[in-house]
Write a structure and sequence with these properties.
heterodimer; B: six-stranded antiparallel sheet; five-stranded mixed sheet
């Protein structure tokens, strides 16, 4: 905000300097009439050199750069914070009868909104199923879970070619301990703790 | 009662729930073998010190099928190997066949096995043969070929005791878990790793010429299918997809592989032509279709699908036009594999009690329980002659095992494998004679 104020103040000065520069060598009466400069400005003009103008231009350029960098940095930090928040909340749970748990719908919607506003972003859906049975039936079940999640993501016009799907059955490489609090919680809420999907970026 | 008659009687009485250590297999005759012919195996004659091993392997091989009741005699009868044989003596006690064997050094430097099978009811020899190995080291293979011939003579079914079994075992090496594809003799002997990986492997399938093995591996971070040449170790990855690529199984003509390919949301059965690597979709359900297995003729595929809400077996023509559900009993039926005659399918069923290996008659869809209830069972494979079914399971202590059961459910045995987790057995096709 402070930089914005500086910028507002600097523009008139820069215009004055430009005018001074313009009249420093060759007289241009039309400009003089148009700008109606006050006495102080006239005094300044009489003392301003070309070097002063170049210095002012450079200062203005630096300030604009700082301003731009600051805006980008703030946007970057905001994006980072949003991504961190989404990463911390990327677990989609299911009910024992195989539907997406009510509380996970908002998780999907948040990710879908983020993916929609970041259309360049590719992502992964990791599906886990250890429901019992053979390795293959578990992997197949895991992909079915992804299919359910995809129904929601598809509603946000997210293209299929942005996603990679990895299904895990018995052979998962997940740090279950890290997920344990949430999985324990899911059990308390009567969710299926043997089947879940994680959205990853 | 004469001493040899007592021995026969005791041997027959031992037919229920008794564990017998035979060669490398732990054989348990789980139920009485009622309709099988009774074969008396006479003690081996001859000079070769490997005679006991040949005898043990014969008993393990024949015993694992449940097709033959075995009994033995105390002393070898020299007359049994000559033409002068007393058939009446055995007919009086209900013996069907008598096997007399002689094991000697062969002139080639190997081992020679001579045998004669007497048909007691016919009162004449059924089969008289001799076979020899080139080296003494080949004695086990020779013994399995000898078992093949005896089995074929008594059952009219080709023996498969000299075939191989591939399976996966895990080992800890320097703190790292290693997954290995192991190929062993059909009795579990002499297992050797043909591929090792730090990443999980599952779902093995032999090519019909036994020269290649296809499998699913996680080495690229997701399941992909590879085909490996056994002679050279050369591997080829089959086409990948956005989602699951797994469960390869060679077609009977060896020209294509049926496998699971998914777009990430819906796994279906596809047929991949091995020459062009072009894929043709066979199933298109809105649910997971996995575990394909070809019918012996190659024109049908059985697979597991969730489309009814729980895993059940379905059969589809390779052209994908006709589809039938074949299991309705139990909440879970999976891992279906056709028996070589195509008339039935071996599978795993789960109900409220646990898992069982079953045999489903494809005409009547009647389900026969082969095993008792197990804590867990999967990965069913069948010997090329259909005599024995192998499967992976957990025992009561939670240990991972590969066990076998005879096609009639009368004999169970545990495949001898090294310690560690073992799963995904896949029986090789017949070996060349």
């Amino acid at each position: 905000m402070r930089l914005m104020r500086y910028k507002t103040l600097l523009w008139p000065i820069f215009l004055v300097l430009l005018a001074a520069c313009g009249s420093h060598g060759v007289e241009e009466p039309v400009y003089e009439e148009n700008y109606q400069l006050d006495a102080q400005a006239k005094l300044l003009r009489s003392r301003i050199t070309t070097q002063d103008i170049l210095d002012a231009e450079r200062n203005l350029f630096d300030l604009e750069n700082q301003l731009q960098q600051s805006i980008e940095e703030r946007l970057r930090l905001a994006r980072l914070a949003e991504m961190r928040a989404l990463r911390a909340d990327n677990l989609i749970l299911f009910t024992p009868d195989g539907n997406i748990a009510e509380e996970s719908l908002s998780v999907i919607e948040r990710h879908a909104a983020y993916l929609t506003s970041n259309s360049y972003l590719r992502f992964r859906l990791d599906a886990y199923s250890t429901t019992g049975g053979t390795r293959s039936t578990n992997l197949g079940r895991a992909e079915e879970l992804v299919g359910l999640v995809w129904l929601y993501l598809e509603a946000y016009d997210i293209a299929k070619d942005r996603v990679q799907v990895v299904s895990y059955g018995e052979e998962d490489f997940i740090d279950r301990d890290a997920l344990l609090p949430e999985l324990k919680e899911s059990l308390l809420q009567k969710r299926d703790s043997t089947a879940f999907v994680i959205i990853r970026y | 009662m004469k001493p040899w008659l007592v021995r026969i009687t005791l041997a027959l009485l031992a037919g229920t729930g008794v564990l017998v250590q035979a060669a490398d297999n732990l054989i348990e005759v789980s139920r009485g073998i009622e309709s099988a012919p009774l074969l008396v195996v006479q003690p081996f004659a001859g000079s070769h010190n490997q005679g006991d091993l040949v005898n043990q392997l014969l008993r393990a091989d024949l015993g694992s099928t449940g097709d033959i009741k075995l009994a033995d005699l105390g002393e070898p009868e020299t007359s049994a190997l000559s033409g002068n044989f007393n058939y009446e003596k055995y007919a009086a006690i209900g013996v069907d066949y008598v096997l007399a064997t002689r094991v000697d050094d062969a002139a080639t430097g190997g081992v020679k096995i001579e045998f004669i099978i007497h048909n007691i009811s016919e009162g004449e020899p059924l089969l008289r043969q001799a076979l020899a190995s080139d080296t003494r080291a080949d004695v086990r293979n020779l013994a399995h070929k000898y078992s093949n011939r005896v089995y074929k003579a008594l059952t009219d079914r080709r023996g498969a005791f000299d075939t191989f079994v591939a399976y996966i075992r895990t080992q800890i090496d320097d703190g790292e878990k290693l997954y290995q594809i192991v190929i062993a003799h059909a009795d579990g002997y002499a297992g050797a790793a043909i591929f090792s990986s730090s990443y999980p492997i599952y779902a093995l399938s032999w090519s019909p010429d036994s020269k290649q093995i296809a499998y699913t591996s996680w080495e690229e971070g997701q399941p992909l299918v590879y085909v490996q040449e056994l002679a050279t170790g050369k591997r080829v990855a089959l086409p990948r997809s956005r989602g699951l690529v797994s469960d390869p199984v060679f077609s009977p003509d060896g020209k294509s592989i049926a496998m699971v390919i998914s777009d990430g949301f819906n796994p279906d059965i596809h047929l991949v032509d091995l020459a062009s690597l072009k894929s043709t979709q066979i199933t298109s359900d809105q649910s997971a279709d996995v575990n394909p297995s070809f019918s012996p003729s190659g024109n049908k595929i059985i697979y597991t699908s969730n489309q009814s809400g729980s895993p059940q077996l379905y059969e589809v023509t390779v052209k994908g036009k006709e589809k039938n559900r074949i299991t309705f009993q139990g909440g879970y039926n999976a891992d279906g594999i056709y028996m070589p005659d195509g008339e039935s399918v071996a599978a795993v069923m789960q109900d409220k009690d646990g898992y069982r290996v079953t045999l489903i008659n494809m005409a009547s869809l009647r389900v026969q329980y082969l095993t008792n209830v197990l804590p867990e069972a999967e990965d069913v494979t069948v010997s090329p002659n259909g005599a024995v079914i192998l499967f992976a399971h957990k025992d009561e202590q939670g240990q991972s095992r590969i066990s076998g059961i005879s096609h009639n459910g009368q004999v169970t045995f545990r495949l001898s494998t090294e310690s560690g987790e073992v799963y995904a057995p896949a029986w090789s096709p017949f070996t060349l004679e």
